[in-house]
Amino acid sequence: MISGVRVKFGKTDADVLVTRGGKLLAGGFIAGTLTVESGGYAHILGMVGGLVVEQGARAKLRGTCTGDVTNHGGDLTISGIVNGTLHEPKH
C-alpha cells in the first residue's frame, strides 16, 4: 500500500495499491495489478501486470501494461503500451 510519496524501482511480485494522497513513480516491474484509488496518483515508467484507475484518481502510463487497463472514470493518460484490453467508462 502506497499512502505517501514513493519512488519504486526493481521487481514487486504482488499487487500494489495507491491510496488517497499517495503518489507513486514506478520505474521497475510490478507483476501484479496496480490499483490507484480516488485521490491517488501513479506515474508508470516501467511495467505493470494490470492497471485499475478508480474515479477521482490520476495515472500516467508511459511504460507497458502486460495485461488489462481498467479506467473507472479517473484521469488516465496512456503514451505507452497496453498488451491487454483497455476498459473505459461509456459516455
Q: Would you kindly provide a written description of the structure presented here, covering whatever features stand out?
A:
The protein has strands at residues 5-8, 11-12, 16-18, 23-26, 29-36, 41-44, 47-53, 58-61, 64-65, 69-71, 75-78, 81-82, 86-87. It is mainly β. It is globular and about 35 Å long.
Largest sheet: 8 strands, parallel
Shape: globular
Category from helices, strands and their pairing? mainly beta
How large, in whole angstroms, is the Cα Rg? 11 Å
Order of helices and strands: EEEEEEEEEEEEE
Spans of at least 5 consecutive residues with low confidence: none
How far apart lie the N and C ends?
Answer: 31 Å
Q: Helix count?
A: 0
Percent of residues in helices comes to under 10%
Write out key terms for the chains shown.
single chain; mainly beta; globular; eight-stranded parallel β-sheet; five-stranded parallel β-sheet; 91 residues
Element layout with pairings:
Blueprint (H helix, E strand, L loop, with lengths): L4 E4 L2 E2 L3 E3 L4 E4 L2 E8 L4 E4 L2 E7 L4 E4 L2 E2 L3 E3 L3 E4 L2 E2 L3 E2 L4
Parallel strand pairs: 1-4, 2-5, 3-5, 4-6, 5-7, 6-8, 7-9, 7-10, 8-11, 9-12, 10-13
Please outline what is shown here.
The protein has 91 residues and is mostly beta strands. The protein has strands at residues 5-8, 11-12, 16-18, 23-26, 29-36, 41-44, 47-53, 58-61, 64-65, 69-71, 75-78, 81-82, 86-87. The strands form two sheets. Strands 2, 3, 5, 7, 9, 10, 12 and 13 form an eight-stranded parallel sheet that branches.
